Amino acid sequence: MTNLDSLIQAKAHDPNTGNAGRAPLRIAVVTETYAPEINGVANTMRHMVETLLLQGHNVELTRPRQACDTQPIGVLKSATDTGGNLSLRLVRGLSIPKYRELQFGLVTRGSLASGWRDVRPDVVHIVTEGPLGWAALFAARRLGIPVSSGFHTNFEAYSRHYGIGLFAGMVDASLRLFHNRCDATLVPIEQIRQALAGRGYERLAVVGRGIDTVRFNPERRSDALRTSWGCKADEPVAIYVGRLAPEKNLGLFIKAALAVREIDPRTRIVLVGDGPDAAALRTAHPDFVFAGMRRGDDLAAHYASADLFLFPSVTETFGNVTMEALASGLAVVAYDYAAARQHIAHHRNGLLVPFNNAAEFVATSQRLIKNAEQIVTLKQGARSAAENLSWGQIVHDLVAVLNSVVARRPFAQPAIETNETAAGIIPMAQEAGRTGILGQSSPSVTTHSAI
To answer: DSSP 3-state assignment of 211?
Structure first.
């Protein structure tokens, strides 16, 4: 554990940490995705912002304008919400290729800097590393405002599934350049912290993720929904929830689910979500139930109405869907990494499979469907494990990091050379030049600084 992590852990158990005994923080949150968009990052940030407000902090949220928004672009609108002050600034957006439901944020650093001169935040927290994130980093550095960032998406691994694997090292170099310009980078689990530290990322702090156990709950199981899937009360359902896209390893989900159905032909196979592979999957498997995008209580009912959650993805930074499945009381089969490693005790509340061992993933799924008693045990254990993962404690830890960043910045940062483009501000690839075009690791790794 780094000095920074040790400090954070100490503060997390200090009654004077967070909002107790301190003035509320004014936090500028900058993100290119936010609810009601459906993805793990948007969901995480919604919970974090709402909990920060409940704890009395002031949040200024900057994000791209969505179709449902009526507020004009560029106008900072304030409203009192759940005990704290929430201000919203919308910026122009540009759809991301192959992720049409998501947007890059388009804004100049000058417009952000102007707003932050008028109402200066204590800290800027940047969620995404796109043009909006870079503009926020430059603006905060120009004004001398402390900056934290979140590492939410494994873009390096994703790039290998979209025909640009040759550039994975350059992607990682750009991300490293971005995060190393911040005073702290938050990661969800120790495994990710160690992996990033080994690749030269600096000042990393572990802040976990919570789960809404009121919404995601076994009590939302719906006989009517199961009937619409063609299931009787005692017939098992194997479910996948997430993006229907190459990086999610859906071929293995299908192989495992069909193997389960070979053992118990009554098994129904349900996929919840949408994405570029949806049409091809529907054509190839007309006997599956494709539920499409689901939100809120409807999504929770889909989880709770299933029995087995088979999650073969190998590209997760965390994997919020694993947490939602546990809270919903499902018997989970997942690879031994990310959220599954953090929260599943093998054979007690889920089953862990050695990472990227496809044959064992299928075999484990088949063994599970043969053992009805184990399914019941795992479902009960899953719910019990999730009940202690409150967002209140997670945000308490987040505030400890932010207070540390505000109290002591570890180093003065030089200006960053940039190219200006119509899409925003993009960093030059001086980092890639230092590490080589394919991003081979530098021989030296900077020691983590305490904040």
So the answer is: coil
